[in-house]
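User: Before I run my own analysis I want an independent prediction to cross-check against. Here's the chain; please return only the structure tokens and, at the end, one sentence I can use as a sanity check.
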Amino acid sequence: MRDLCTLNQKQLDALRELGNIGCGNAATALAQFLNRRISMSVPNAQILPFSKVAELAGGPEERVMGIYLRVLGKIKGSFLLLMPERTTIRMLKILIPTSTVEIPLKINDFERSCLCEMGNILAGSFLNALSAIVNVPMFNSIPSLAFDMAGALIDSVILGMGDVGDHVLMVETMFTDNQENLKMHIFLLPDPVSLELILSAIGVN
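Assistant: Structure tokens:
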């Protein structure tokens, strides 16, 4: 079985395009969820080793919010959404205008629930776009949310993934709500069997 680091250029390009399409679908869903116009920068999709993930999130000691979900169905794997504290605060103040959260983040149960629902919607719309392209059903588990330094959070996610290779598909994008940039990173890691199914479905196996 292959993992992401063993793919050829054609296969990598195809997966990057899947990531871009998934991100576009997620932007549309986010706009509907927030009930406001959301524009999106051109996504930057890369295949990169886990060792580089924390660097792209601002460095291992950068405090971030992480929402983690399992990808379920015929396609299996992991989905991780990382957002800087400032983006998280902006999201909360859009969702809950009365919210008084500031850095360092301390959120109540209702705020946590709203963020989890946002993560659930983003993950679901991202995976729905991929599912339509590869014509294979996939859905996500209930999200789990954590605030931590990027390095520690990513290490804990990797431990929970098991032996599925050491590379991940990352899509970096910037959403804008006409007032502030909302930066986030989306990471998708299909297991080796699922990776083969995806490559076969898009004709680059």
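Sanity check: Strands lie at 39-40, 44-49, 63-73, 77-84, 138-140, 144-149, 167-176, 181-190.
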